[in-house]
Amino acid sequence: MAAKRRDRQRAAELGAQETARKAEELPRRARVLGIVASDKTFAKRPLGGSAGAFVWAGKCIHCNAQLSVALDGTLLGVATVEHIVPRHHGGGDSVENLALACARCNGGKGIRHDGKPRGDAKLEAMIALLQKRRAERWRDPAGSV
Length: 145
Ligand SMILES: [Zn+2]
Hints:
By secondary structure, the protein is of the alpha+beta class. Helix content is 45%, strand content 19%. The chain binds zinc ion.
């Protein structure tokens, strides 16, 4: 009987983990859609090959490489979420501080800049450049989707 109780407890724990994972996944996709909606390089494009299927296609904040996002906000291919002000420097998840970047650029920025102390000239220049680009691409999220 004790074993059965343990099994039930384990199943309940796994269920709770799954619920927590899903609860995390939903805001993440909502955040991605928030970026797409407020970045005018993104537009709904037909997905080559499968008739009737669409993706959001837009550009990497760093190198302008083509990025794709599923209509439900799932990142496709090399698309990643970039924090313009790095999280460990107090950059939050507000949509103004987020952009989409290809994995190569995002990783490169992480290695070259994110470890630098706040106030470092190169880090500050990178943040300023990304904020300027983000502002140039900005569109009113309410009007786009
Ligand atoms: Zn890139």
